[in-house]
Amino acid sequence: MVRKRAPKSLIEILPTLVFCTLFVLHINQILTHLFLSDKETLNITVKSTQGGTDTCAGRYVYIHNLPSRFNDDLIENCEAYIELRNKCKYLVNSGFGPRISEDDHNHTTRVLTTETDPWYYTNQFMLEVIFREKMKHYECLTNDSSLSSAVFVPFYAGFDVRRFWGYNVKLRDELGEDLARWLRDRPEWRKMYGRDHFFVTGRVGRDFRRVSDQDSDWGNKLMRLPEFENMTMLSIETNSCSNEFAVPYPTYFHPKSGVEVKRWQMQVSMMQRRYLFSFVGANRPELEGSIRGEITRQCLASEGRCKFLDCGTSKDCGEPVKLMEVFQDSVFCLQPPGDTPTRRSTFDSILAGCIPVFFNRDSAYNQYKWYFPKDHTKYSVYISEEDVKNGKVSIEKLLVKVSEEKIFSMRNEVEKIIPKIIYTKPEDVGPEKVEDAFQVAVDRVLKRVSLFKTSII
Ligand SMILES: *[C@@H]1O[C@H](CO)[C@@H](O)[C@H](O)[C@H]1NC(C)=O
Ligand SMILES: *[C@@H]1O[C@H](CO)[C@@H](O)[C@H](O)[C@H]1NC(C)=O
Ligand SMILES: *[C@@H]1O[C@H](CO)[C@@H](O)[C@H](O)[C@H]1NC(C)=O
């Protein structure tokens, strides 16, 4: 079919998200159209779980037992790579990082839950480690790959690309090419030529889509290898539509049960919020066209209605308790793009029940479709980047006009998103488990593979 080839060649010409969005919408429509009955079948499979039938039917995942050079060696030798060194300390506790203790900060128990047990100093790039640990505890694992609906490839792609920042392209591409060969030679590959394979990375998609083989170009070319073009990649930010999907950045909160999540949601809903809005971030004067300067200016001019935490000068931005304190104290949280359109801060602020304000559709709406309500006006405010740039809009005036009822209903939506964007502890399994970011992702991957199985795309 034409659609099968279209994305590949078009991506090279038009590598923009806008295009991708249109394309994905198109495909989704076609799929929804063609597969209404498929959805119904999926529901039936899930429902039949209580009876004597196999509760995992259609949900089995096989984990490839990769040689350690593709994962464990990378983090074991973390300290050996200059580029990774300051990340190494965050690898502990399944990639959640060191635990936050009550004594770390005077406000800890006032800001976080009184039991600080679910809180960690989580680094934003640890998702591949976290996800693999979660996958090891997934309830429907199988060692029999003929039974599996999907195949998980526990490759630490982000650690691999990061360790060779600035080195020559040969070195940067080596391990990915090695893995491609390894995968292609497995019997599991022949089943669907990789269409049922997926992997997760804690870095942004563009790090893996280098456009040429010049050393000066960014990243490696992992996602341009033919084998990886057949696989599904989950990452914290995508810039391609064909086989990449965005999943939430990890937050600091990793509870072990639904009870802990509910308790937190309750706490969030009762918070008194001192500021109308806040901006936590650094100015980017060197970044042409960045609206952060204007946002900072407006925030500082608001006479106390806006809280600005300047990450350019203050160390507090590395301090989860301080960050969460600001988000909890604010009704709205401004999320302007930085180096890339998405921000980890979006997820931390949602966790704190703060209503996000976006300036670019690629910051969230075009990204986390598996996670956020389709109608973005339900949980967020959108102000166009252009209007801010042209000085056409006063953020304060705009936000002050939002009614109490609207704020209440938006915050309600934000609170409902919380369980879906957190990564609970790996041991959180069984019937009472939280439908967290991991669970949502695995379900969507399984659904995607099942669509391939009907061999339409
Ligand atoms: C907590 O407050 C006490 C007294 O105000 C102060 O001496 C101490 O340094 C503070 N600790 C931290 C971690 O901020
Ligand atoms: C798969 O095999 C390994 C090694 O024999 C074993 O430790 C693991 O429990 C098995 N997993 C499943 C889901 O059967
Ligand atoms: C990718 O999938 C297509 C179609 O399923 C197949 O023809 C092709 O050989 C696969 N590529 C690799 C490298 O296996």
From TrEMBL:
Domain of life: Eukaryota
Database matches in PANTHER family: EXOSTOSIN HEPARAN SULFATE GLYCOSYLTRANSFERASE -RELATED, XYLOGLUCAN GALACTOSYLTRANSFERASE GT13-RELATED
Keyword tags: Glycosyltransferase, Golgi apparatus, Membrane, Signal-anchor, Transferase, Transmembrane, Transmembrane helix
InterPro entries cross-referenced by the UniProt entry: Exostosin, Exostosin_GT47
Keyword Transmembrane among record annotations: yes
GO cellular component: Golgi membrane
Membrane topology: Single-pass type II membrane protein
Protein name (record): Exostosin GT47 domain-containing protein
Pfam families per record: Exostosin_GT47 (PF03016)
Organism lineage: Eukaryota, Viridiplantae, Streptophyta, Embryophyta, Tracheophyta
Domain annotation Exostosin GT47: ranges: 56-395
Species of provenance: Thlaspi arvense (Field penny-cress)
Protein localization: Golgi apparatus membrane
Primary subcellular site in the record, as a coarse category: Golgi
An example Gene Ontology molecular-function term: glycosyltransferase activity
Positions of transmembrane segments: 12-36
Protein family: Belongs to the glycosyltransferase 47 family.
Record carries keyword Cell division: no
